Amino acid sequence: MNAPHRSLWLDQAYTGSTDRPALTGGDRADVAIVGGGFLGLWTAIILKEREPSLDVVIIERDICGGGASGRNGGFVLSWWPKLSTLVKLVGEREAVELAQASEDAIGEIEAACEQYTIDAQFRRGGWLWTAATEVQRGSWAPTVELCDRLGVHPFQQLSPEEVARRSGSSVHLEGVLEPSGATVHPGYLVRGMARVAQQLGVRIYEHTPMVELDRREPAVLRTPNGVLTADKVVLAINAHAAGVRELHRKIVAITSDMVSTPPIPERLEEIGWTGGECISDSQLQIHYYRTTTDGRIAFGKGGWGIALGGRMGSAFDRDPKRAADVTLGFRRLYPNLADVAIDRDWSGPIDRSPTGIPLFGNLGGRPHLLYGAGFSGNGVGPARLGGRILAGMVLGDRSGLAVCGLVNGRPGSFPPDPIRYVGAHVVRTGVAAKEAREAVGQEPSRISEFLAGLAPGGMIPKKSKQKA
Ligand SMILES: Cc1cc2nc3c(=O)[nH]c(=O)nc-3n(C[C@H](O)[C@H](O)[C@H](O)COP(=O)(O)OP(=O)(O)OC[C@H]3O[C@@H](n4cnc5c(N)ncnc54)[C@H](O)[C@@H]3O)c2cc1C
Fold it and tell me: CB under 6 Å to ligand 1: residues?
């Protein structure tokens, strides 16, 4: 197999000399976790913290962090922006509790980094949710109104001048700040978590794909050179869940794409983007961008490529055309950095759920087979919460997060492939056409408006059409 294209983060955090062995022969565990990303690793760490004698094994097809967890923007965000969706799913009281728990997860990640000495460059600079075109103005208003009505106030209204000043570009017309938002270096965090899991006694096999899951009890996981038997199994495989028959209608695998600049700390000083804020605009194909401790900008855009039947090819690692499109977005949002080079680009998979909120449950209703997937581009912080949910489910908790309304809920379904593959391409073409015209102040065509109306909300809720 060719060496996969790696992100900036993994180039910095992964030396290649630290791979863990693959599974060969037979092994047995109380709990087998499939997937060594944030979700699988938090589940393993929390399980060992709560029940040190439990025998926990992780199998990972690549290296820990080789998936989305080692490639993302490093925004550590809450679910407050998704409050209206949560209300629809679980009702007002529980929605507020879950959103609060997702905010608390940010602090838990910071605390875990301190406790276990993970230098993940955690920085709480807040999240700026902005409008970068006329039509994006006020995208947050319904969410802020709902928060006010429910008596919670996670967002601060900033003046337009303040938004332009803090973001370092007057292309940002207005926005709100969510002060709890933070950034991390995803590579150092995920590789550090794998080290911690191992120190707590978790056995990790890398380069070990599960190629078959025998769903009987105990479950048997087959890998190319081994067999793992386990009383309980946790699938934490992100967008690969789209290839699992019970989850195929619940998860669509799409890409998110990133580019980054070389270190330009003096330019960041010059434009005033020095507070460590992570920023996004309010497009459906959202732009998200942050600075790094060594003075780079990492800039991403959500949702271009889609996989057929959950099969993700090399275009989920890197795609020059999409990277050029992301670069265009950077140039539009930061015309004052027009001379700054882009020297890295990479892509990764997003596990889009029908609602934008992840699903947790028992695969096919089987109590010993658990899954969590569907973070929909907001999983760095929420995977910690997901780890608490899954660990609670494994341990049989009868109250708390393990029995929250996201577990075995009814999130709706996507159409099956190939209908959804074709449909998603058509919708995405409409969204791209609409947002490209809006970016230059032009009216979108009616057909692109219509198609964009069919797209599900992602990292932020979809803005309902407003009259000018
Ligand atoms: C480019 C990009 C930018 C993003 N930016 C942000 C952001 O700024 N903030 C945010 O909150 N979220 C962001 N996300 C989403 C976030 O990265 C994910 O939600 C989060 O990392 C999910 O962690 P995970 O453990 O579920 O998935 P992963 O990290 O993908 O872990 C799943 C693991 O399972 C392994 N696996 C899959 N199938 C098998 C198998 N059969 N056998 C063994 N192993 C298997 C994979 O190799 C992978 O390592 C972004 C995602 C991408 C791709």
Answer: 34-40, 59-62, 66-69, 71-75, 77, 209-210, 236-238, 240, 256, 258, 288, 300, 348-350, 375, 377-381, 383
Residue 412 located in a structural domain = no
Residues 230-256 pLDDT 10s: 999 999 999 999 999 999 999 999 999
Distances (CA, A) of 119 to 113, 179, 185, 237, 328: 7, 22, 9, 25, 32
Domain that holds residue 426: 419-453
Q: Looking at the structure, tell me whether residues 197 and 336 fall in a common domain.
A: yes
Same structural domain, 322 and 244? yes
Rounded Cα distance between 85 and 52, Å, is 36
Domain count, the chain: 2
Q: Is residue 3 part of a domain?
A: no
Which pLDDT value is given to residue 308? 75
Sign of the CA dihedral with 455 first, then 461, 464, and 465 last:
negative
Are residues 175 and 206 part of one domain?
A: yes
Q: Which residues pair with 233 in a beta bridge?
A: 32, 369
State the pLDDT confidence band at 199, using cuts at 50, 70 and 90: very high
Average pLDDT over residues 307-315: 80
Distance 350 CA to ligand 1 centre (A): 7
| Best mutation site among 80, 247, 380 for ligand 1 pocket (most ligand atoms within 8 Å of CB) | 380
Shared-domain flag, residues 446 and 362: no
Q: Do residues 251 and 352 lie in contact, with contact meaning Cβ atoms separated by under 8 Å?
A: yes
Tokens read off for 301: 């855009």
The average pLDDT across 269-284 equals 96
CA of 310 to the centre of ligand 1 (A): 14
Task: Say yes or no to pLDDT of 339 above 60.
Answer: yes
- For strand 174-178 and strand 127-131, is the pairing parallel, antiparallel, or unpaired? antiparallel
CA distances from 43 to 56, 152, 283, 366 (A): 10, 29, 32, 19
Return the pLDDT at 431: 75
Domain-located, residue 197: yes
